């Protein structure tokens, strides 16, 4: 997957296929098929790998101690991801067809679930959140889902400014 990510960074998303990957790894095409059943399987694995690379946990654990710094970090990771993998956020959404589309969507959702879990954990641990900010009907999970929706909306607009989301947090739970 590292070779695939390097190929995407150097020559773009469409540069990666089974033959090109085999050449880059100096292995036979058949060897690649030992790991990936089809180009769609390779593509799904690449998408998952890129999402994981973009959202690897921060070196500074203090970033995840409050929701404001966490959201700022997420937006920075998205901005960096767009620089390292130009067009990735838009291209991967249209790269699957037919039955392969469901597999790609499932892998993407698994990667996003990781981000949701981080948001929920940070909301649980953030000492600045008002004690009564969450209720039985407005839970941390609901708020994390809302924040994630705002993040995805910003992502689709190529807007990497976290300020509006940070303001929602300040007004809602602080």
In short:
This protein is an all-alpha fold. Helices cover 68% and strands 0% of the residues. It is elongated and about 60 Å long.
Detail the topology: elements first, then pairings.
Elements: H1 2-11, H2 18-25, H3 29-35, H4 39-54, H5 67-84, H6 88-91, H7 99-125, H8 140-156, H9 163-173
Could you characterize what this model shows?
Helix 2 (18-25) packs across helix 3 (29-35), helix 4 runs parallel beside helix 7 (99-125) and helix 5 runs antiparallel to helix 9 (163-173). The chain has 174 residues and is an all-alpha fold. Helix content is 68%, strand content 0%. It is built from 9 helices and no strands. The model has no long low-confidence stretch (mean pLDDT 87). It has 2 domains: 2-43, Arc Repressor Mutant, subunit A (Orthogonal Bundle); 47-173.
